[in-house]
Amino acid sequence: MPSNDFTITRRVQFAETDAAGVLHFANYFRMMEEVEHAFWRSLGHSVWFHDGDGVISWPRVHCTCEYASPAKFEDELSLTFRVARMGKRSVTFEVDFHRDGLRIASGRTKAACCAIRDGAFRSIAIPDNVRCVLRPFVADQASAAP
Amino acid sequence: MPSNDFTITRRVQFAETDAAGVLHFANYFRMMEEVEHAFWRSLGHSVWFHDGDGVISWPRVHCTCEYASPAKFEDELSLTFRVARMGKRSVTFEVDFHRDGLRIASGRTKAACCAIRDGAFRSIAIPDNVRCVLRPFVADQASAAP
Amino acid sequence: MPSNDFTITRRVQFAETDAAGVLHFANYFRMMEEVEHAFWRSLGHSVWFHDGDGVISWPRVHCTCEYASPAKFEDELSLTFRVARMGKRSVTFEVDFHRDGLRIASGRTKAACCAIRDGAFRSIAIPDNVRCVLRPFVADQASAAP
Amino acid sequence: MPSNDFTITRRVQFAETDAAGVLHFANYFRMMEEVEHAFWRSLGHSVWFHDGDGVISWPRVHCTCEYASPAKFEDELSLTFRVARMGKRSVTFEVDFHRDGLRIASGRTKAACCAIRDGAFRSIAIPDNVRCVLRPFVADQASAAP
Fold first, then answer.
1. Which of chain B's residues have a Cβ under 8 Å away from the Cβ of C73?
2. Is the Cβ–Cβ distance between B95 and B35 less than 8 Å?
3. CATH number at residue C95
4. Looking at CA atoms only, how far is residue D44 from chain B in angstroms?
5. In 10 A of CB B102, how many CB atoms?
6. Chain C neighbours, 3+ Cβ pairs < 8 A
7. Partner-chain contact B14 C19, CB within 8 Å
8. Is 0.90 surpassed by the pTM of this model?
9. Per-run averaged pLDDT (10 residues), chain D, 146 residues
10. DSSP state of A35
11. Interatomic CA distance for residues D133 and D43, integer angstroms
12. Chain A nearest C-alpha distance from D81 (Å)
């Protein structure tokens, strides 16, 4: 369902490169998080969601990135984000990195819905108001059923 | 083959934490690289290997990390590294993160052996002298056969 | 000479915060570099300047930042860059950080013009073609005299 | 008063280098913070100091670094920390970076003693128990008088 993809443009900064002359592999994960947070903002939300007297957020359970071609300083990357799946207590995001129309990397993140209080994380079912906001964007609609 | 594991201790630094009060998830990948490079040094090598007139190094092909429990500022983590597999042109490393004997995360990296010249990476077969150095440490010995 | 200022907008990303809940102080220096590089690009240049068979760039000699008020996750900052001074062999840049019209930090960077070859840096006089490009933007015009 | 200096050894990691092949200039500030925190730990404290029902910490007011010579991947640096001055409400730290006995950089940090509650920072006089701990290490003893 490509129409539900969300894309930002992001230039590789000098501090993100390494002595091999390329974007350091760990920084793809930071970029994956940036496009995710931009997606939440595009919905009028924040990844930090105040719900009653607590905060709900999405700590990572599992992350992966596959690298096809390196990126260099000042490359302008296109980051395309989608919500691949929404379970009862977690969501799975995917991000494709393109440069000049060529896919250079792809990442996948599973994040758990958690209530955060006093620095402790407690896994919870995704609240209904959050499910409603995310549902139209979920690629695997069967996973998002009420 | 636990005897071939290689372990370092690494304290979580303040700049590595985030506003959720925990070690930011992307920094586990930096730590996975740190223990890998420490492993190479323990063999008297560097991950940057000068071979003839070029440099051989190991760009990442695929990385993954699974998070079981968060880490906090000043936590002293134990990072245990092993060479899971050595193919003709790539190696697979695994790292377990422990705190006080409890496993808090596990990562896996597949890296390709590449010749680097003028900023370009070219995949090559792992040179014999490197295979010899790594072979005793490979957990899956069948993968490391000459 | 405010008309020569160059401004970009930059949102604070989650990975840039720390466990105190604010933008980590070292990341202001990364942002100072980002606006500097955006300034070069706005002139149709790059901070990495190929000149003949070598590369000219601007390693830092001295950096400073003064912090007036913290910034938080998702704050939209305005970074205003100016070339304060241009000497024979170095330039001094200044960056002001504002949020909602309030100045929250100010930095200053002295960078030396260097020829880079084989990883070695050699201080050189700023080439004439670079002086010409920068001169109209220098706040202290006396320092920029030919 | 060299006997009050505090020194750690710190290897330059690959993710800390940049495409110029050297330790990125912003990472010196992260290292300055690391040796400061190691100093606090050497006193049996943490930079995060629980005092009554609040937390006391030391946000930066002003930071500076002067760079004399670049550092490269795997360089083993010696970071020497000292408390230059202790005022009523702030302290000034200095850090020298050496490699093989050669000073390659020097930094200076002024940090304000602050009570932190609900994410807000409030400047306070340095509590007596903290003054007592720091006083023997202050190079400018006149500044540390009770």
1. 19
2. yes
3. 3.10.129.10
4. 13
5. 9
6. A, B, D
7. yes
8. yes
9. 81 96 97 97 86 85 97 97 97 98 98 86 92 92 82
10. H
11. 8
12. 25
Q: Does B71 lie at the interface with C, CB-CB under 8 angstroms?
A: no
Q: Which amino acid is at C111?
A: A
Q: Which two tokens stand for residue B70?
A: 């968060």
- Tens of pLDDT, residue by residue over B122-135, are 999 999 989 999 99
Report yes or no: D121 at the C interface, CB cutoff 8 Å.
yes
Nearest CA in chain C to A15: C30
Q: Using the Cα atoms of residue D17, residue D20, residue D22 and residue D28 in order, give the sign of their dihedral.
A: negative
Question: Which of D33, D46, D48 lies at the smallest CB-CB distance from B15?
Answer: D33
pLDDT tens sequence across C19-72: 999 999 999 999 999 999 999 999 988 888 887 767 888 999 999 999 999 999
Total domains present in chain C = 1
User: Which of the other chains make 3 or more beta carbon contacts under 8 angstroms with chain D?
Assistant: A, B, C
| Complex ipTM tops 0.90 | yes
Say whether pLDDT at B3 is over 70. no
Which two structure tokens, joined as six digits, stand for C108?
Answer: 């200053």
CA nearest neighbour of B125 among B111, B106, B144, B112: B112
How far is the C-alpha of D81 from the C-alpha of D35, rounded, in Å?
Answer: 7
Range of the domain at D78: 5-144
Distance between B145 CA and the closest CA of chain D, angstroms:
30
Q: Which residues contact A101 (CB under 8 A, 6 or more apart)?
A: none
Nearest CA to CA, how far is D73 from chain A (Å)? 8
Q: How many CB atoms lie within 10 A of CB D56?
A: 18
